[in-house]
Amino acid sequence: MLIEDEAELRTLMGPVHPLAERKLLPRLDRYARDFIALSPFLVLASADRDGRADASPRGDGPGFVQVLDDATLLIPDRRGNNLADSFRNVLTSPGVGLIFLVPGVNETLRVNGRARLTTDPALLEPAAVDGKVPKAGLLVSVEEVYFHCGKALIRSKLWDAERQIPRSAFPSLGRIIADQTSVVTAEDAERTLDEGYRTRLY
Predict the structure, then answer these.
(1) For residue 96, what pLDDT band results from cuts at 50, 70 and 90?
(2) How far lies 98's CA from each of 39, 80, 147, 178, in Å?
(3) What's the predicted TM-score (pTM) here?
């Protein structure tokens, strides 16, 4: 049976806990700022004008996302595959959702808002790494901020080192690319990836 409207959904899920409603903030408070300063990783969710969704990982040193003020974040772009899915999406549909993670902390920080693409040197130059200034960045105007409880990470045991699988238990990305594209050997793909990891992170 499919759930097709919000009334059915609310009947299924039950009432929202009063504390859950009260924890939704319109701006970044000191706890959110401190969490972002500790976070080396986030997931950026966006969608195009037709509602096709995309989730993109973003990572760098702790605090790589800059808090410009209590309503504005800057996410610097780092070198990647140049598909620019998130950038293309926000050009026509600026709504975004962010989930910040801090290794060892089960709770996460969720930030929802609207994003714009910037190439302003005054904003991007402070985000340089190894002398390399990002070509672009996302300016996120914050609309909703809240901490998410740790149940998902506790259930998944994400930070438990004993739960990490041996890297050999899953094919390498080079092998996957070779099999999926049939235009490169696994060895060549591995060499390209390894070189990129060593020399083209920024």
Answers:
(1) very high
(2) 12, 19, 11, 32
(3) 0.94
